[in-house]
Design a protein that fits this description.
The protein is of the alpha/beta class and 242 residues long. It has one domain: Aldolase class I (TIM Barrel). An 8-stranded parallel β-barrel has the order 1-4-5-6-7-10-11-12, surrounded by 7 helices. β11, α9 and β12 form a beta-alpha-beta unit.
Length: 242
């Protein structure tokens, strides 16, 4: 299985931003145009792009769809989420040009519903997003832009989706997201142990080339890169060279 580098653009009010540990009150804005930034990633060799509608993730409705539609015209394989709550939302994203729809909140709130979407749309067209933090005893899950706790744990849902035929899992360590503190390699070893059939995309904390090398060696299928690219501690060409 090839290792995929996914530059990330988090959108809020049409702007490119990053949140620290998923906290909407701890936002860093970047003076870049989303389309120009995506073009720069493409021109540096990226073939994929990860897009999050942060407004949609919290409010449950798409707020940055027009920007997303523009991003889907650039020749990149776009996976996008944030605001997906029902089948109509999934279809709207496909209609916008998205190759893979990322489902997070609905996956932890209504896993049976998402299992049905796997059957309808195919496993390669959906990315299950399980955003997690360790509470001292278990890997708990969050939804609604990480503002609400979910009843199930990572250990419950990851194997469940794998058994249902899911292929792609985006797993973010909330405590490390946007912190440039290094990825949680133990988390990804754990995910691969409990759900080995899933192609895992690692997200949260990546700082530099060494972190990308370590993640690739850990056996994950890909890495989502956000703040490190925007702040220049890492570049797309260097990540791809790994």
């Amino acid at each position: 299985m090839s290792f995929v580098v996914l530059p990330a653009l988090d959108l809020r009010g049409g702007r490119v931003v990053r949140l620290r540990q998923g906290d909407y009150a701890r936002e860093t804005g970047y003076a870049v145009d989303p389309l120009e930034q995506a073009r720069a990633y493409r021109d540096a060799g990226a073939t994929d792009l990860h897009v999050v509608d942060l407004d949609g993730a919290r409010e449950g409705r798409f707020e940055n769809l027009r920007v997303l539609e523009g991003l889907c015209t650039l020749g990149l394989r776009v996976q996008a989420g944030g605001g997906v709550r029902g089948e109509d939302d999934v279809k709207r994203l496909f209609d916008a040009g998205v190759a893979r729809v990322v489902v997070g909140s609905v996956a932890v709130r209504e896993p049976d519903r998402v299992v049905g979407w796997i059957g309808t749309h195919g496993a390669d067209c959906l990315v299950i997003a399980l955003d997690t933090r360790h509470d001292g005893s278990a890997w708990t899950l969050s939804s609604a832009g990480w503002t609400e706790a979910a009843p199930d744990t990572l250990d419950t849902l990851a194997p469940r989706f794998a058994a249902a035929g899911a292929r792609h899992l985006l797993c973010t360590d909330i405590a490390r997201d946007g912190m440039l503190a290094g990825p949680n390699l133990d988390l990804y070893a754990h995910v691969r142990a409990i759900a080995p059939a899933l192609a895992v995309q690692a997200s949260g904390g990546v700082r530099d080339i060494a972190d990308v090398v370590a993640l690739r060696a850990s056996g994950v299928a890909g890495v989502v890169l956000g703040r490190s690219l925007l702040e220049g501690t890492l570049d797309v060409a260097g990540a791809l060279a790994c």
